[in-house]
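Quick start: what a row looks like.
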Amino acid sequence: MTVISWDVLDQAHGALRTTVAKVADADWKLPTPCEQWNAAQVLRHAAGDQLAYVAAITGSGGPSENPFEPAGDAPADPQELLAAALDGSARAFATVSPGTQAVPSPLPQGSLPAETVVGAAALDAAVHAWDIAVAVGLPSPLSADLATLLMPVATTLAEPLRGFAYAPALAPQPGDDAVAELLRYLGRRPDWTR
């Protein structure tokens, strides 16, 4: 079997891993740009979403809790929770060949082209890495290069999911870079502070 590597997913997973590794235990209760969710809930949601992709692709290994109703307490070992989800996601996507036209996804749209499904999983991981980072006062893990790679999938998927997974888009502002453009498109204020 050929193992496929998806650079955009690797970058997004790396951003989320790096961020979670730097969060202090006391900071998991802090509010985030995801209204009504604290940092622990965003982490649980992000891990659950990656496991939802695992289940869609492999038929097993889904999340143990509803990613859209995450518990508010920090996991006993946040890095372990995340590693299990991201490692499972990477293994599942390693079986998906570029150019495949119908890859199962947990999204309401169902099966989509491989590049779209991989991009959706990467978008989720990268943006939630940013959510957690800004909530706890860390530098943004979302690079301009990664944001540029993720913008096409955002424009493909966000509209049907507005009000459920994404807030209404915010108007672009003069001087926005690729990161700010992506965040505003997904309904987030790039200058968000708690």
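That is the whole record. The domain at 7-142 is CATH 1.20.120.450 (Four Helix Bundle (Hemerythrin (Met), subunit A)). The chain has one domain: 7-142.
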